[in-house]
Design goal:
Shape: elongated
Largest sheet: 6 strands, mixed
Number of helices: 15
Distance between the termini: 52 Å
Helix content: 40-55%
Oligomer: single chain
Strand order of the largest sheet: 3-4-1-7-8-9
């Protein structure tokens, strides 16, 4: 099962399969260059035979072009189904899952998440019978299940294009052809694995073949974006068994960019993997990416650190921040580190807060760790860039939540909450509201009007305001 024949199949095989179409490429890219070199390097007195050979080469080339053009119009086009796929986004890709049918897919929009993309597609294999099923698979990005669909061939497909429209609300495709519309139904997903040959311009997909993590990591160096994306998905599916090979990439000081990016992307797609599953070497390699703000590796590394917070990750971030402060590094070299640290600390604070009440003897420890995390998260604003400052008051909101939870868990059943604890929570929410307002005023003075961002969690503002009037638990739900 494959998308297209691999280009490394050999000249003879391609000539046999593609005939004069391949011969055109052979004459233009190989023979013409060799004959021209022979002509230029020949002695002037003996150049005439080479000149004749050079002219003959171009006569053959134009002859082949003419024949191929006639063949395309009169023969080949009769066996081609063409169409488009629209309605997808940049992190969504289409893969062929049909045995023994060549389906060419060409994405022709910018490959960015949330940016609409579309595909031109062609079936160029042979004339297929009515009812022949063409199966394809939709990958919708990280942490989303794949879907498989089936297109039934109609003879009229060979006469006019077929348009497939993705209906996001129904997670299916609508088939538009000859003024008629029909919904396609999702098919049971067939388990497959992918073998991808480095250097190939399109992936070659085989059914049920096991590819080792080591091979997949090697394939991440492919020059084809589609191949690399496919490998990332397959590597993520390997789960923890792939971690040693991925860790080896992180530890390699000479790691190739495309391989490292693929490892980070696969790691973010891997299910059941957290910050505690990766080594300090991997964490430090991710932290080093905080300087590469314009590269996708920065986004992937930061996404993993923030989505999988642990105290070890926080410790590594703090070590790097302290080392740079001690070395008097420029403020800009701390911006991304401070932002990542603030987010990790905030989430760690929430984790500790949520443990309150589980075991009374441990409440004090969890409370102190939560408050310490929120305080340190808030303090990170002193190292942050102006364009991140609008987010930082969230640390105070989390701090207020921890104080409120303490007032709930540390009182006898049926008795009122400790008034001092309630007031401490209200004071912190009041500070949160003041600091959010002060931050906005500060940013209006520092940044152009169009660059000032509002606090991204308006529900926090509403809940804090309500809690000041009525400090009941329902006001924070």
């Amino acid at each position: 099962m494959y998308f297209a024949s691999a280009p490394d199949a050999g000249v003879a095989e391609n000539l046999l399969k593609f005939g004069p179409f391949a011969a055109i490429a052979l004459f233009i890219y190989v023979i013409e260059g060799k004959v021209r070199s022979m002509y230029k390097e020949a002695d002037p007195a003996t150049r005439n035979p080479f000149l004749a050979l050079y002219i003959f080469t171009w006569i053959m080339t134009f002859g082949l072009i003419g024949y191929c053009s006639w063949f395309w119009v009169h023969e080949y086009r009769q066996n081609v189904i063409a169409g488009t796929i629209v309605g997808l986004q940049g992190n969504e890709t289409i893969h062929n899952d049909t045995p023994d049918v060549e389906l060419f897919l060409a994405q022709h929009s910018e490959n960015l998440p949330s940016i609409p993309v579309s595909y031109n597609w062609r079936i160029v294999d042979r004339r297929l019978d009515d009812g022949t099923p063409i199966t394809f698979r939709l990958s919708r990005g990280s942490n989303k299940p794949e879907s498989q669909y089936e297109l039934k061939i109609q003879s009229s497909f060979y006469d006019s294009p077929v348009r497939l429209v993705y209906l996001r609300d129904k997670n299916t495709f609508r088939q538009d052809h000859n003024g008629k519309q029909a919904l396609m139904t999702e098919q049971p997903l067939t388990a497959r694995s992918t073998e991808i040959h480095p250097g190939s311009w399109l992936p070659v997909v085989y059914a049920e073949e096991k590819v080792s993590p080591k091979q997949l990591v090697e394939y991440l160096d492919s020059s084809d974006v589609g191949v690399r994306k496919n490998v990332q998905v397959q590597l993520a599916r390997q789960g923890p068994t792939a971690l040693p090979e991925m860790e080896a990439v992180a530890a390699d000081p000479k790691k190739r960019y495309s391989v490292w990016l693929g490892v980070l992307s696969a790691l973010n797609q891997m299910k059941g993997i957290g910050g505690g599953n990766v080594s300090p070497v991997m964490v430090r390699a991710m932290i080093a990416e905080m300087d590469n703000v314009k590269l996708p590796t920065h986004d992937q590394a930061k996404a993993f650190l923030v989505a999988h917070p642990t105290w070890d990750i926080e410790s590594e971030l703090s070590k790097e921040i302290d080392a740079r402060k001690k070395a008097s590094r420029p403020a800009a070299e701390l911006y991304e580190l401070a932002h990542a640290s603030y987010q990790v600390l905030y989430l760690l604070g929430l984790q500790e807060k949520d443990k309150l009440g589980a075991a009374a003897a441990e409440n004090r420890e969890h409370f102190e760790k939560a408050v310490g995390a929120f305080k340190k998260s808030w303090d990170r604003r002193t190292l942050a860039a102006d364009y991140h400052l609008n987010e930082f008051p969230k640390a105070l909101f989390g701090w207020g939540l921890a104080l409120h939870d303490r007032s709930v868990v540390e009182h006898a059943k049926g008795q009122p909450r400790n008034p001092a604890f309630v007031k401490a929570a209200q004071d912190k929410f009041a500070e949160f509201l003041r600091e959010e307002t002060a931050t906005q005023e500060y940013l209006k003075k520092r940044l152009p009007a169009g660059q000032v961002k509002r606090y991204p969690y308006p529900d926090h503002l509403a809940k804090a305001s309500a809690y000041l009037k009525d400090p009941s638990e329902k006001k924070l739900q």
